[in-house]
Amino acid sequence: MEVILIGFMGSGKTTVSKILAEKLNKTVVDMDQAIVESEKRSISEIFEDEGEEYFRKIEHEILLRVLRTHDGILATGGGTPLRIDNQQILKKCDVPVILLEASSETTYSRIKADSGRPLANGLSAKQLESVKRQRVQRYNSCADYKIITDDLTPEMVVSKVLAFVSSWNSKVKKHKCS
Predict the structure, then answer these.
(1) Do the record's keywords include Glycosyltransferase (predicted)?
(2) Structural domains in the chain?
(3) Which of 9, 37, 39, 146 could form a disulfide with 78 if both were Cys (CB 3.0 to 4.6 A apart)?
(4) Residue-level pLDDT at 56
(5) Model's pTM, two decimal places?
């Protein structure tokens, strides 16, 4: 694993991970997409049929599998760091965990028309901000570096990620992810 991207929905994880993977000539695993492929149904359908607890369980299992078997870029789901065991895994990981963060206004403008986000569907900007506020501490607790993405292009974010990864690789490592 080269880099793990975490952050709230709409922070740019998927977009940045694709560009980063191309620059590093690595593959990318997008957790949400991996869950959809594993379950053979959309995230919205999983939430409707099974509920959030089931979704988080599957997300945890896929996180463990990806960290054991993948050698590239991981874009986690927005809720991946919500589980304590996922936080602990990310904190101990020998891979840089980078938090992408956007303001509540930017987040709302990026996701308001996306119906594939069951935890955000129908939320006002203020309600979405409240959900985001509840998660911030968990994101910060397992991040090695944070990038505010509001005024940056995806390519600028990737440049910051690459600069951090370069300095990270010259430092003492944490423990293995798995």
Answers:
(1) no
(2) 3-167 (3.40.50.300)
(3) 9
(4) 92
(5) 0.88
- Residues that constitute the known binding site for Mg(2+): 14
Q: What is the dihedral of CA 2, 6, 12, 18, to 10 degrees?
A: 20
Known binding-site residue numbers for ATP: 10-15, 117
Distance, in Å, from the CA atom of 37 to the CA atom of 172, rounded to the nearest integer, reads 36
The annotation places the binding site for substrate at 32, 56, 78, 135
pLDDT at res. 139 = 92
Residue whose token pair is 């959900």: 131
Contact yes or no for 30/14 (Cβ under 8 A): yes
Query: Which residue reads 């191309």 in tokens?
Result: 22
